[in-house]
Amino acid sequence: MTLLVTGGAGFIGSNFVLDWLADAAAEPIVNLDALTYAGNRQNLAALEGDARHVFVHGDIGDRALLDRLLAEHRPRAVLHFAAESHVDRSIHGPGAFIKTNVEGTFTLLEAMRAYWSALEGDARAAWRFLHISTDEVYGSLASDAPAFTETHPYQPNSPYSASKAASDHLVRAWKHTYGLPVLTTNCSNNYGPFQFPEKLIPLMIVNALAGKPLPVYGDGMQVRDWLFVGDHCSAIRAVLAQGRCGEVYNIGGWNEQPNRDIVHTVCALLDELRPDPAGPYARLISHVKDRPGHDRRYAIDARKIERELGWRPAESFETGIRKTVQWYLSHADWVAAVQSGSYRDWVATNYAARG
After folding, report:
1. Per residue in 217-259, pLDDT tens?
2. Is residue 282 part of a domain?
C-alpha cells in the first residue's frame, strides 16, 4: 500500500510527508514535486536514506510521468498538494497559476481517472483522490458575516484564488461526470515550520531578525483564520481515513485575528526569545500600500469536520505561534538557504513600490 503525494517538498506537503512517515508503521510515500522556488528538498532532509520515501522530481503536467508512477507504485490514494499559492505572485504573474493549478490539476485528474478505471474490486472501491484547497475560493467576508461553510458560494477575487476555485470545480466535475472518488478540503491560513518567507509570519520573523522593515499592507486589519500546519496535517489524515466520498471539508483553526495583531505577537515573542539591543522589534513595523483587491476577512466554520470526523485543532494560536518562532530561530541555515537571489528579487519587486 502506497500514497502518491504531489507537492510534497512544499510547505504543507513536506509537513504532511514528515508527519506521516514519523510513524514507523506508515505506508510508503511517492513524493512528486517540481521543485519550483517554494519546493525545497531540504525540508525532507530527515528522510534521507528512508526507503519508505521515494522522491521524484517532476511536474504534475507530465502525463507520461504520471502514468509511469501509477503503473510502478500502484498507490491506493493520491493527495494533491501541488499548487502555486501566493496571492501577490499571482498578481504579478498569473500565467503560472493557471498552468499549475488549472492545467496541472486537469492532467492529474485525467491520469487518475485512467488508473482508477482499470482497478477492480476492493482496490477500486477504496481508492481516493484528496484535493487540498483554500478558503480563499469563497471570497471576502464582511466583519459581521457568518464564517465560510462548505456550501458558501465561490467568489474568488485574485488570480490565485480563481485558479484554485477552477481546480476545485474540476475535481467536483470529475466526481459527478466520471464517478472518480474524490475528497476536497478547504483550509484557512497555515503557518508553521518550513513556510517560505514570502508569507506574512515567516516574512516578519526573518525581516525582524535582519533589522529590516516589517511591511504591513494598508491598515493591517485584514482578518484571517490561522491554522497551525501540524493541525492541518492531522485533519488531512482524518479526511483520508474517514471522509465521505465526494464531500468537501473546511479545515480551520478557530482563530480569527487581523494581520496587525499577528505582527505584534511575532514581535513580542522575538523580544522575549531573541531580544534586539536596538529596541523592541515593533519599531520596525511599516504600513505600506495595500495590494490590489485585498480580501478583508476570511473565516472558516469547521463544525462539519468536527461533527463527522471528530477533528479539532490541537494547538491554540499561542502555542502554535511560539513553536513557529522557535523553529525559525533554531533553523537559521534553512532560512539563509531559501533566501536566494530570486527571493531577494521577488521581495524588491513586490514591496519596493509600496513604501
Report:
1. 999 999 999 999 999 999 999 999 999 999 999 999 999 999 9
2. no
Q: 302 is in which domain, residue-wise? A: 3-194+227-255+295-315
Residue 351 has pLDDT above 90, yes or no: no
State how far the alpha carbon of 301 is from the alpha carbons of 142, 164, 229, 257, in Å: 15, 19, 17, 15
- The answer to whether residue 273 is domain-embedded is no
Would you say how long the chain is, in residues?
A: 355
DSSP string spanning 206-251? HHHHTT--EEEETTS--EEEEEEHHHHHHHHHHHHHHPPTT-EEEE
Contact status, residue 185 vs residue 248, Cβ threshold 8 Å: yes
Question: Would you state the cell numbers that stand for residue 243, as one nine-digit string?
Answer: 471522509
Sheet with 189-191, strands from edge to edge, namely 189-191, 223-228, 256-258
How high is the pLDDT of residue 340?
Answer: 73
Residue 57 is assigned to a structural domain of this protein: yes
Q: How far apart are CA 137 and CA 108, in angstroms?
A: 20
Instruction: Convert the pLDDT of each residue in 107-133 to its tens digit.
Output: 999 999 999 999 999 999 999 999 999
Q: Distances in Å between the alpha carbon of 280 and those of 3, 215, 272, 309?
A: 46, 16, 10, 43
The answer to whether residue 280 is domain-embedded is no
Rg (CA), the chain: 20
Q: Tell me the C-alpha distance between 156 and 295, whole Å.
A: 9
Tens-digit pLDDT profile for residues 271-296:
999 999 999 999 999 999 988 888 89
Residue numbers annotated as active site: 135-136, 160
CATH number for the domain spanning 189: value is 3.40.50.720
Helix or strand (DSSP H, E) at 56: strand 53-57
**Residue 318, strand partner residues:** none
Sign of CA dihedral 131, 232, 351, 154: positive
Helix (H) or strand (E) holding 35: none
Which residue in this structure is represented by grid cell 495583531?
261
Q: How many domains does the chain have?
A: 1
- For 128-162, the pLDDT digits (tens) are 999 999 999 999 999 999 999 999 999 999 999 99
